[in-house]
Specification:
By secondary structure, the protein is an alpha/beta fold. It is built from 14 helices and twelve strands. It has a single domain, classed as TIM Barrel, CATH 3.20.20. The protein binds L-rhamnitol (RNT) and zinc ion (ZN).
């Protein structure tokens, strides 16, 4: 079947594949830099600690900012459409890297130049882990005022970096705060840390940073390795905080109970917060960060975003890390799966489904939903790859293999 034939099949159901292709091509996905180096960063630390653990020792990890950019360039050639790069503060790139509280936009100059050259937007994150000041297991919610102040200052520095980058690229930066704070075992005082976290966030957000160029987001988590019993920044905490302060809310697909899906939360939270950030990820048992696949949980996230007509208010970010397979392939698999999920949602015969629902014809609604699964969407995806000049689904891996041979294999 050709793209034309598949477009006709969709048109018969009232779906405009050209609209789907245009929307898909201009909807950016923010690629997380930390998939390329197992969340190490370039401060000289090893591993993220604090519950973010990349396991595996597949050869070829990027060890320097230049290697990471070289790998990103390879991934960029294999991923269609608009892209952003999501940086963490530990990826500062300058001859002398200061304390985290003293970081400024100059320490990210090489990334900004790279983003301009490749027409990427940028996003940003304070790194509130993998640092001696986080060794107690508490950062913004610490009972120690000196520790709290350190992390408040770091988060403020990051918001300013976000705003400066946004202004320079004329493309707003989402600065997302996630902290690892919590207890391994049963706490007595669950309230104190949460009161302190609210106060700290208030101080962080009170610092001036352009609202036009920096978008503040906050991210919850259910539990992490080492903080099984209590996580200060729970979903209820951040949902409440985001509603009260009208910040962007980050929903990470791996940060809820295993049978809980973030898809059903989207239409609820968008009633009360101005913007949404997704960390598209895949939970597997205790892990929240497996490489994203074209699976039902991922598809339903994008169905909801599209059905809610919320693409303009949603920032699509990725969050997974796997050090046991080729890291560039991991980026490509996860990003393309995310984009395929979005395409499927854009190809849904939404008007017809809504009509059936409003008429109370739930039998036809269910039948049509099932019928959409066998429509020739892969022809539309291939057409997208052709138009954006990236390899087709069964072809891109060849390029990863040859890059592995010519570049990755020579890294010590
Ligand atoms: C951790 C959060 C957070 C991190 C990144 C590195 O559980 O998901 O988003 O993965 O900031
Ligand atoms: Zn996340």
């Amino acid at each position: 079947m050709s793209y034309q034939e598949s477009a006709e099949r969709y048109a018969a159901l009232g779906v405009d594949t050209e609209w789907a292709l245009t929307t898909l091509a201009r909807t950016p996905v923010s690629l997380h830099c930390w998939q390329g180096d197992d969340v190490n960063g370039f401060e000289g630390g090893t591993g993220a600690g604090s519950g973010c653990i990349a396991t595996g020792n597949y050869p070829g990890r990027a060890r320097t900012p230049d290697e990471l950019r070289q790998d990103m360039n390879c991934a960029d050639r294999l991923i269609p459409g608009a892209k952003r790069l999501n940086l963490h503060a530990i990826y500062a790139d300058s001859p002398k890297i200061p304390e985290r509280t003293d970081l400024n936009v100059d320490h990210f100059r090489s990334w900004i130049d790279w983003a301009k050259e490749r027409q990427f937007g940028l996003d940003f994150n304070p790194t509130c882990f993998n640092h001696p000041m986080a060794d107690s297991g508490f950062t913004l919610s610490s009972s120690d005022p000196a520790i709290r102040k350190f992390w408040i200052d770091h988060c403020i520095a990051c918001r300013k970096i976000g705003a400066s980058i946004g202004r320079e690229l004329e493309n707003p930066v989402v600065t997302n705060i996630w902290i690892p704070d919590g207890y391994k075992d049963l706490p007595i005082d669950r309230s104190g840390p949460r009161q302190r976290l609210e106060e700290s966030l208030d101080s962080v957000l009170a610092a001036p940073a352009s609202r036009e160029w920096n978008i503040d987001a906050i991210e919850s988590k259910l539990f992490g390795i080492g903080v099984e019993s209590y996580t200060v920044g729970s979903h209820e905490f951040y949902l409440g905080y985001a509603v009260k302060n009208q910040t962007c809310l980050c929903l990470d697909a791996g940060h809820f109970h295993p049978t809980e899906s973030i898809a059903d939360k989207i239409s609820s939270v968008l009633q009360f917060v101005p913007r949404l950030l997704t960390h598209v990820s895949r939970g597997v048992r205790w892990d929240s960060d497996h490489v994203v696949l074209l699976d039902d949980p991922t598809k339903s996230i994008f169905e909801e975003i599209v059905r809610c007509d919320a693409l303009e208010r949603t920032h699509i970010g990725l969050d997974f890390f796997d050090a046991s397979i080729n890291r560039i392939a991991a980026w490509v698999i996860g990003t393309r799966a995310t984009q395929k999920s979005l395409l499927l949602a854009l190809l849904e015969p939404q008007n017809e489904l809504k009509k059936l629902e409003s008429e109370g014809d739930y039998t036809s609604r269910l039948a049509l939903l099932e019928a959409t699964k066998t429509l020739p969407w892969s022809e539309v995806w291939d057409e997208h790859c052709r138009r954006t000049e990236v390899p087709l689904e069964t072809e891109w891996m060849r390029e990863v293999k040859s890059y592995e041979k010519s570049v990755l294999a020579h890294r010590g």
